[in-house]
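Methods — Computational structure assignment.
A single polypeptide chain was analysed. Its primary sequence is given first, followed by the predicted tertiary structure written as structure tokens.
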Amino acid sequence: MAKLHLLGRLPRRGRGFWYGLAIEVLAPVLALTTRWRLRGRRHLPRRGGVLVASNHLSYADPIAVTLFGLTARRVPRFFAKADLWTVPVVRSVMSSGGHLPVHRGRSSALDAYRQAVASVRAGECVVVFPEGTFGDRADGWPGEGRTGLARMALTTGTPVVPLACWGTQHLLPVGSSLPRVLPRPTLHLAAGPPVDLSDLESDRPGAAQLREATERIMAAITDLLAEVRDQPPPEA
């Protein structure tokens, strides 16, 4: 009943037709095949630009994070490989959802960065996986983050909300083409308060500022994941 109540309150505005249709199809399927443990939704502001920083375990992460964002009354936008815009149906979902295509090459990455900055300045909720790809640790703890997210945050003053995601690797393990719903997996998503980066904000942050901001963000994600997993992270 709790999940049905959440599904009935998901925001409809700002999703675009095809992105909205995909949500209407996938959300009930997730409700039937998985358990949800959602914590800290109050930390995601209802209005204004925000960056959500999450660890990355599975191709199911964007679906789970979308669910979390929607239950917090925000419509998340994602970076995604530009190749998805060439796939029938998928390209309609990506375009209508206002997601951000990332092409290969340095100049194209800069274009994606500029689009993301424009999105948060326009009041959007943009999700970033700072690791850039699936974590390379066999134990599932986050690895080193890239500095692109930090640059967006420091140059725009946009708050960064850390998010820990766990359980998606059981639903859709890396390398698997089909989800695994038996035994029924539990999706844990826990957000924390925005990471304090106020002392590092700058129009032109240097390498040291970017690395420090990135380490603070990754530490916040790791601390949340430790709470979700109920175990301490390994020592660095």
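Note: The chain has one domain: 2-172+179-229.
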